[in-house]
Amino acid sequence: xAKTTQPISMDSYEGQEVNITCSHNNIATNxxxxxxxxxxxxxxxxxxxxxxxxxxxxxxxxxxxxDRKSSTLSxxxxxxxxxxxxxxxxGDIGGYNKLIxxxxxxxxxxx
Amino acid sequence: EADxxxxxxxxxxxTGKKITLECSQTMGHDKMYWYQQDPGMELHLxxxxxxxxxxxxxxxxxxxxxxxxxxxxxxLTLESAxxxxxxxxxxxxxxVTTQETQYFGPGTRLLVL
Lengths: 111, 113
What we know:
Chain A is mainly β. Chain A is built from no helices and 9 strands.
């Protein structure tokens, strides 16, 4: 399983764009990159998943360079409600896999 | 919104008691997981299952046990609770598609006195 490295914490202000980068130097060919969001006292919630290039949905964008050794979660115009822990996971989806959560990045959005 | 449920949400119990944490999902997912998470810390996988009668231990050693007799049900049992078992326990299930997303339940906060 590929190990991931993320910043421990980040601070931002309402209305700003936030970019959280995750390093995964040992990513395997079959691995996908998935990001989850977790609020206090709740289970993680899926945000976005990608394999290469760029993926965008209604809440975020995911940028993955050609070598796939890192990925960047982009949150446009954050609000106070985006204050949470964000986890980057790398793994082979499907089959007998198990996803491993790292320490995540604590994002604090200030007024 | 995912249909995965955990009961109880909160449990305070004395040392030595046997407890069972319930987890049920109505999505027909084959894969189910149990994670343990202390406040402000990362999630640790303690058990997982690929389907009925399949159970595996996760990466974090746990004194708990699990069973999977029905697809929708994945209970976790502690035969003799200890203060070191105090934590939050999160259950999840996976939809096997091109986006294998884990859906998490609300969690059970366990306090062992």
